[in-house]
């Protein structure tokens, strides 16, 4: 029995040693776990501080960003207005020159015609007050008749029984 006792004692001693080893291992693990918990807590606190700082930085920079956005929008709108003014002015200037040139050509042509024999005679008729009645066929004895293709004629019956007249404008 002494062998069994010695063996039981040896097993008990081995068990005690294993328990001490396990206890020291668990103590080391507990210390390591506490250290990891501290590291995680510190990292979480640092992340929280960084988030707060970023939030404060954004809150400070947001009005500045809004001001810059408004300034850029104002510059773009002003640039658009300036471009529209420039294009409109240029187009208006060109249209005015074309209209003025056309008016000058028309006036030139009228002045040239006024210097012809027909123009001089029309001037004399106008001075006597007869040009408008002739142009509108408002002369006693004359009447307006519709001819071919819708052309209007100022006509008078002649003594020979035939109609005489001219096409009206």
UniProtKB/TrEMBL annotation:
Superkingdom to which the source organism belongs: Bacteria
Regions crossing the membrane: 65-87
Keyword terms of this UniProt record: Membrane, Transmembrane, Transmembrane helix
Official protein name in the record: Replication protein
Species, as recorded: Acetobacter tropicalis
